[in-house]
Amino acid sequence: MTKLREIKERGYIPPKTMRNLLIAGSLAIGKVFITNISDIRKLTKNSQNFKPQYVRPPRRYELPKYREGMKYCDSDEKYLRPTLYCNPRAPEVIALANELGAFKKSDREFAEAAFEFCKRKLTLEMLPLDSVENTLRRGTGTCLHEISVFVALCRAAGIKARYKLYSLTVIEAWEDTLVVDPLIKKWSDAMGYFMLHGEGEAYVDGKWVVCDVGPTPERQAASGIPITRFGEDSIGVWTSAIPGTIMRLESLPYGLNAMMKLVYKIAPATVDKVNVSILNMIEKGKKILEDKGEENYDREIRKTYKPKFPETMLKKRQEIVFE
Questions:
Q1: pLDDT beyond 70 at 187
Q2: What ranges make up the beta strands (E) of the chain?
Q3: How many helices (H) and strands (E) does the chain have?
Q4: Residues in contact with 178: Cβ distance below 8 Å, sequence separation at least 6, in sequence order
């Protein structure tokens, strides 16, 4: 298979909806830059003397050792093969998949075990995209890093898995955690929504089952929302998908990393603030769950919880059309 053919077949070229989102995001951030030139200059100058406050937390798990002969799926079938940032044949992935019960548990049992691992053991951190191997060695990553680990584990175990991506608004409690800087606020206001979130989907028992591994129980408790489970969609719980933006993909496409790298380079202090805020949120939620117990907390909150989303205004642009 030629490289160009592989790029096309595996979905590395962004679909039309994502291209529109990337254009909208670029236009929005460009507008913020143009209308806040003095602030951007100060930000760039301050970045040279920037001292990080964020300290990456220790991994929540021990990586199992890879041994020759460990079983894994080597199929080149769609949704089972390696894709961009997601190599199910990496030694770290194979070893972890075997530890979680690959080829010993039913597909549903394994997918649920992979879901619980990614949801509970991986910590959210804003940083550019990289491989699942690096994510597992670090123990941290964005929602896209975390989904890639889940997808890779399922594929290593012979279970088809894919990405579900969409633009969204979030509940007010999470907006306060993520929008910690005036420039992020201006970018968010210019867009009218957050650019992208993702969930994983695993094919078990003859159907695709949604698995949002991004939010840990601690972060959900800190936000006063239910602790989402295997097969439970976050849409309607803490996210609201922008109509026409849901995409189901075999691979993360090219282009997603460029904007994160740009923000990471120009505004490292902003990224640092977000990461510190996330850790503070985790600590807050940890205390809540220690006091109430996870099962009691979740049972109580589901009786009264009603999500509150900010009103979204989509401005029509001739060059950006969601179908």
A1: no
A2: 123-124, 140-141, 161-170, 194-204, 207-211, 239-241, 247-249
A3: 13, 7
A4: 170, 184, 194, 274, 277
